[in-house]
Design goal:
Elements: E1 4-6, H1 10-20, H2 26-44, E2 50-56, E3 61-67, E4 71-78, H3 82-89, E5 96-104, E6 111-117, E7 125-130, E8 133-134, H4 138-149, E9 154-162, H5 164-173, E10 178-184, E11 187-188, E12 194-195, H6 201-206
Parallel strand pairs: 1-10, 4-5, 4-7, 7-9, 8-9, 9-10
Antiparallel strand pairs: 2-3, 5-6, 11-12
Length: 209
């Protein structure tokens, strides 16, 4: 079974409060999501492998470490996942970015895919799938399925808020994918929205309804 990591750093929890607040406008919402994605990326990448190197400082030789050549990829679930990409790229500017377009049918709540554009070497990369919300788990599972069909082997899922139902769905279908979230909320309502959640992340990011 995959692991679920709740990243409860005080800065993340503080910013998440304002992300949830319905009075927060799109500009501030985008900036906060970007900032939280950067902070969460520290924990999501904690297990990157290091190797020993030597560098010459102005004073002498230092025995130190660098990341051991492992390639990282960020895969945004459109459209709300776009709001988290730049925050991660601030830490890992060499990461390649893929996009998977999925929307949820408002009646069936089932995921429907319409777009997929990925780096050609996904099988060689540590992939971080990003989406602000893990609600039913349908979109996340569909995105992970697309990646595995294209050879991906090392995948993590990073979200701001998760519902217990979504966590269970991902663990059931993809027990090899660890989940990173800033909060686990109460449940889903009849429309498949997380309660209390933060509303529709895509609409709040881009000022649409």
């Amino acid at each position: 079974m995959s692991q679920v990591f709740v990243i409860d750093h005080p800065l993340i929890q503080h910013k998440l409060t304002f992300i949830r607040d319905k009075r927060t406008g799109s500009k501030d919402f985008r900036e906060l999501v970007d900032e939280v994605a950067t902070l969460m990326a520290y924990e999501v990448t904690r297990d990157l492998v290091l190797e020993d190197v030597q560098v010459e400082t102005p004073i002498g030789i230092a025995n130190t470490k660098v990341i051991s050549g492992k390639k990282v990829g960020i895969v945004a679930i459109l459209r709300a996942g776009l709001g988290m990409v730049d925050g991660i790229l601030k830490l890992i500017p060499a990461a390649k970015v893929g996009h998977i377009g999925i929307y949820r049918d408002p009646k069936t709540l089932k995921p429907i895919d319409y777009y997929c554009k990925l780096p050609t070497d996904v099988s060689e990369r540590d992939l971080i799938v990003v989406d602000p919300m893990l609600a039913t788990g349908g979109s996340a599972n569909a995105a992970i399925r697309f990646l595995k069909q294209r050879g991906a082997r090392n995948i993590k899922l990073m979200v701001l808020i998760a519902a217990p139902e979504g966590i269970a769905a991902v663990q059931r279908e993809n027990p090899d994918v660890d989940i990173y979230t800033a909060a686990i909320d109460q449940c889903l309502n009849d429309h498949g929205y997380i309660v209390p959640g933060l509303g529709d992340a895509g609409d709040r990011l881009f000022g649409t309804k």
